[in-house]
Amino acid sequence: MIIRRIEVENFLSYYGKNIFEFDVGPTLVIGQNNTGKSKLFDAFNWVLFDRSFKTEGEKWECTKDWGKDIVNNLAKKECKIGETVETAVSILFNNEDNKYYLTREFQLIKNNEKNWEIPRNSELSLTITESVTGNSNNYYDKEAEEQIKTLFPENLSKYFLFQGESISQIMSLNSRSAFTKALTDLSRIEVFENAKKYTEKVAKALKKEFEDKEDSDKAFQARKRDLSKTIQDLKKDLSDQNDLFDNTCNERDIAKIVFDKNSEELKKYEECALILKDIEYFDNQWKQKNELRQSVVDAQKKEIFDRWMYAGTEGILKNFLDFYKKNKIDKKIPEPIRQEFLKEMLEEKKCKVCFTPAPIGSDEYKNIQSHINDKSLDKEIELINQLSLVADNMQDKVENISSELQKYYARIDEIDTSIKGFMNKKRLKEEELKTVKPSDVSDDELKTKDFAHLQRGYEESKNDLDKFKLLIDRITGKREYIKQQLEDKQKEYDSLIEDSSNVVERDKYILAEKINKSVGQFHTVFLTKLINDIEKEANTYFHKMTEKNVALSGKVKVDYENQEVYTIDETDIRLQNINQANKVSLQIAFVAAILSVSNKFWNTYFPFIADAPISALGGNNKLTAVETMIEIFNQSIIILKDDAVTDDPDALRNDMIRNLIQMDNNIRNSFELKMEGETLDEQHTKIIKLK
Amino acid sequence: MAVKNSEVMRQIEEMLHDLKKQDKQQYNIILSLLNEVFLEYNTGKSKNVEKKLYEMIDAEVRYRTQKN
After folding, report:
1. Phi/psi of residue A34, each to 5°?
2. A333 phi and psi, to 5 degrees?
3. For chain A, which end, N or C, has fewer CB atoms within 10 Å of the first or last residue's CB respectively?
4. Residues 6 or more apart from A494 whose CB is under 8 A from it?
């Protein structure tokens, strides 16, 4: 099947009639953001399946839901009151010997500037022209839809009308259901599965006929029934085990999804958690050092203040002490008069200081007597001595003021350096956090995230997953055991019925069983061949897409047993922690391989129409992915974002893609889309033919 | 798609090659069965495949029995 042309008239960003011509091989359509790239993809979807992607609601909507919005704004603006504006998309394509022209139309009547009337929903028409005879047949609406369905099955549309941004929705590589769906949808293996179902049913019915017909030998009949019952029971057991296996695998898949989610969540936040822990540590250290500084200042404040009070008093103190010492030496400062000495003087009736006689009752005697118990002199001396002592201490302190202050400032400096250090470390960690923090997570969310809870969730989901793996191993062992028993009993049964007297019924049953077995084997052979071909092609595509990567990406493994697709190393060991770019490459390679193998096998050759197929890929994989895609398909129409001016290392650069268009001779057609018009309601897509 | 699709038929012929040599009748029945299944899949309409298979087996066994 080859799409020759699409005509887009007054549809979304397309004003007037716009024509894109295509050919066998690749066509590249490029354009910057908001130039009508996705609207072109929508045009294919609209004409074939009456749907167009609404960005606001992020979902596909039919014409009925779109209403007047599906019509181009400028066309609506230019429409006069009372007149009709028409939107239409047509595709012209060839299939086998016929030419198909499919058109979907939609009309609006302008009642006034704000009021539009929709006379009817979109209308579909199809004209099929036989190339040899030139005879044409016309089909409308439902009939046209029926015709289109057989050529473009809607359940396969997500594979040949490929939207890069939704790759993860259509192909989750570790989900059995997604794997089976993709394989079943695209390989059409259900044709062989249906054949298998019929042969199974007929074999079962013929077996019942044979068993229900009594054999002439009673003992033989009883033995036949017993064996048949045993086989039936074993089959039931096996079927139960198979169901259990499937259910457990489904539960394992759910557990795996939870585990992957938790693992990803933990990984996403783990790095942040470590940095946050560092930030918290530095913050605490910073606070502690600030407190220490405050306590050092508080502790020394009084002493320092005191010292400051004494500052400059060295001279005064020195004078005081010199004066004191000198007068002490000169005996100008009286020595204390001891009480015993006074008593001696009274006994001897003589003053022993001036040696004046002091007889009892004399004035001298009275004078000496007045000093008995008189401490005033002692007090004076004591005060003088204390003053001297204080002065000594003060002098010591005053002399040490400078060195003590130096020590104090050194300590404060030391603490300040620590504070500054912790502050810088904290800032650096905060900068680092900005680079690793997921863009969709706010600072507040990050702060309130319970990392311990995340860790617990991860551990629990890992345990769950391991539990299911163990359970699956056990069921597999049990299944093998039942299969062996069943095989033995079946041999015994086959051997027994050779002697049956009901020859026709027996032979019918035996032939039906043989056919059933052959069709079953045929199904297995077909599936094995299919898987091998898919794996081989997926490997070729994956290798091409990732060959420019520095890091090796491994080989693709299509594991039908476990219904998973993954990568393996040279020793066939599964690679863990595959990066996002390679994961998306693997998904694209797998889907492309099934589509390609299916196309070859069924000779259908769907055109591959892709909108932003590489949007989820990393820089290195982007160009090679485009190169690979244009090689794979008989016809491909690839719509790409043209990152004209960007510093993003992951962007597909303008010059790279334009160079590819010019240099690759397989690309026969290429278009660039631009936006024209001054105001919002005048803007519309302009098509420039590049090749 | 089905019967007129030479690639599918080529693949089927290849896969049933051994059976064709060993048991031509069984091979014929399987080929007829697959044709019916393809037609059913293509048209989306029931072709009574189960009944036809049953009749093919019955006819084949009765033919063999009579022959012997």
Report:
1. 55, 45
2. -100, 115
3. C
4. A510
Residue A336: DSSP 8-state:
P
State pTM to two decimals: 0.61
- Torsion angles phi and psi, residue A217, rounded to 5: -85, 115
- What pLDDT, in 10s, does the model give residues B21-59? 988 888 999 989 988 888 888 777 777 899 999 999 999
Q: Which of A129, A121, A45 is nearest to A92 (CA)?
A: A129
Q: How far apart (Å, rounded) are the C-alpha atoms in residues A685 and A687? A: 7
B13 touches chain A (CB under 8 A): no
Does the pLDDT of residue A11 top 90, yes or no?
yes
The most confident of the ranges A123-127, A145-149, A394-398 is A123-127
Q: Are B41 and A191 inside 8 Å of each other by CB?
A: yes
Sorted by sequence, the CB contacts under 8 Å of residue A665 that are 6+ apart come out as none
Interface pTM (ipTM) of the complex? 0.92
CATH architecture observed for domain A2-152+607-689 = 3-Layer(aba) Sandwich (3.40)
Site of tokens 């259901």: A177
What residue ranges do the domains of chain A occupy? 2-152+607-689, 172-213+503-605, 242-457
Which SS3 state, helix, strand or coil, does residue A561 take? Answer: coil
Rounded Cα–Cα distance for residues A330 and A665 (Å): 123
Asked whether the CA dihedral A443, A439, A58, A173 is positive or negative, the reply is negative
How far, in Å, CA of A650 to CA of A643, rounded? 10
Residue in A closest to B20 by C-alpha: A518
Decide if pLDDT at A273 tops 90.
no
Among A190, A525, A601, whose Cβ lies nearest the Cβ of B8? A601
Tell me what percent of chain B is helix, strand and coil, each rounded to the nearest 5.
Answer: 80, 0, 20
Could you give the CA distance from residue B59 to residue A199 in angstroms, rounded to a whole number? 16
Helix, strand, or coil (residue A323): helix
Tokens 């081989």 sit on residue: A536
Burial of A69 (0-12, 13-18, 19+ CB in 10 A): middle
Q: Which residues of B touch A602 (CB under 8 A)?
A: 1, 5, 7-8
CA–CA separation, A543 and A556 (whole Å) = 9
Pull the structure tokens for residue A121: 């929903």
Q: How does pLDDT run across A16-31, given as a tens digit for each residue?
A: 999 999 999 999 999 9
What is residue A511's predicted lDDT score, i.e. its pLDDT? 93
B46 vs A: CB within 8 A: no
